[in-house]
Amino acid sequence: MCGIAGYFSRKGSHPAMQVMLTLYAQQHRGQESCGIAATNGTNINAHKSMGYVKEAFSAETLEMLNGTAAIGHARYPTRGTSVLGNTQPYVIETLSGPIYAIASNGDIVNYNEVANELRIKGVHFSSNNDGELLGRFIVYHHEREGMGITDAIKLLMKRIKGAYSAVFLTREALYIFRDPQGFRPMMIGAVNDDIAVASESCAMDILRAVNSREVKPGEIIIITQKTELSIPFSEQQLLAPKNPPSRHHCVFELIYFARPDSYQFNEYIYDVRHKIGAQLATYDDFDADVVVPVPDSANFIAMGYAAAKGIPFNMGLIRNHYVGRTFIRPDQYSRDESVRQKFNPLRDFFTDKKIVLVDDSIVRGTTIRKLVRMVKGAGAKEVHLRIGSPPVKNSCYYGIDTPNRDELIANNMTVEEIGEYICADSFKYLKIEDLQKCVKTAGNFCYACFNGEYPIPKES
Ligand code: SF4
Hints:
Mean pLDDT: 92
Number of helices: 17
CATH superfamily of the largest domain: Aminohydrolase, N-terminal nucleophile (Ntn) domain
Structural class: alpha+beta
CATH class of the largest domain: Alpha Beta
Number of strands: 23
Low-confidence stretches: none
CATH architecture of the largest domain: 4-Layer Sandwich
Bound molecules: iron/sulfur cluster
Helix content: 25-40%
Strand content: 15-25%
CATH topology of the largest domain: Glutamine Phosphoribosylpyrophosphate, subunit 1, domain 1
Strand order of the largest sheet: 3-2-4-1-10-9-11
């Protein structure tokens, strides 16, 4: 995952401040570290920090970053360890100084192959992060091979495989580009005469951006003080309009990652989740006392279930919002700790009740097992667990931290065994064909973590 941001100012507004607000609205996409890089027209200054956005940028820091354009990043680690050196944006120095910076969201599938090619040509890397690879690729072809930056990005799209939504900053321009399959989201919009970029539309709303739209898969957009140029993928690849590249948007963004108030991949997130709940409700013919979500990402799924069945919906589990998302914490110890710290049942609420407990997905199974025990320990008579996605059986190579199939409970146990392990009175997953009914264009999505059909094979 990760959240990216970009802002190009034409009327003297403070781009680093706007980027900070954009990152703040996207904190759910990455909580490990964050950074902002800004150009003042002469060079690029940056500030990076471990931890949350609101603690990372003081008024003095933002003043140091004032200029004409800025990019930013909130990191969720996939490739690379949890150290400041892997924090984006990456600033790339040349003999002219620090004059390029990049921030990206996604994972590169042929990282080793491309990085080794560049190393052989004398390019040095300061991290093993995908964003740096994209930036070094562009700068190498621009500085050493004399290619225009736009042409270097076009070459990047042919050569580098995988998921990337990226913002690339120079002293004069902001380049915005997205992989041809459109795995990760990216929005662009106008704030008066300025241009704003964000991973999610909820961040564009904070800036009161107008005419927001998705950056199209494979599109390159170049913003300068006077111009705004869009190069569609079909034009650069000379594809016939009737032959567009296949789309593979991450369906997990709709189920879990994105904020419910975001609009993404031509879908309202809250609406998709509501439909998922309604689909789950068709599996059951019993009555329950109350439908309870695992907050927050399952809230709308549980609402959809409750509305379809005519059963009351209520928030029986209270979430401590000052603890990060359990799925995106990097190690098992901190995940286990944060489950206990994160959820607390309402006292007396569950006593003698038949509960439908709804969660969005199960990855390792440790969180939900503890939660079912917590609800039963709070007095529930029965707990029927419903999951708003199919079993996660495969690792993601496109930007989500499930690198090892052995960690996935659905890869190690049958549905019946998982139900027993979790100690629920009944247990059901959403079927993949029913998930596909919840989106407008089912063929435009990636479902590889459920069905193993990878749109781009991983490099060997
Ligand atoms: S494998 Fe799963 S998490 Fe990864 S991009 Fe595809 S749908 Fe999303």
